[in-house]
Amino acid sequence: MVSAPIASKSAFSVTETSSWISNETNIVAKNAIGQNNIITKIKEASQQLYEYERSYIQMPDDDLRQVLTTKIEEKKKIINESKVKLERLKRRAEAQARLRAKKQKKLEEESIVEQYDKPGRPPAAISHPDL
User: pTM higher than 0.70 for the full model?
Assistant: First the structure.
């Protein structure tokens, strides 16, 4: 038997998730396919979460409520995992942008073109751990 409605205890309300997504979409570049796919996945999962929560409130049968509870928990897990992946992709993109800027600066100031991952050259992440 389920004690309290999940909708009132939801970690993500639709407005919170949609405002978080709108803030995140302003930052995402158009050519960041992976980030855009994850944002789409979050939007779909939050919409389904909202529908499950509404159904849960109106559901009189306890067995169906339990099924909806598991689906709600699954959608919350998907949203959390997708947010973590999105943050990871953003950090990676920022590190690449810093590396490109550093290479461009060296090219402009010293006319040095550095190529990494060639024989005798370590990867950029090892050479510049401060990125």
Answer: no
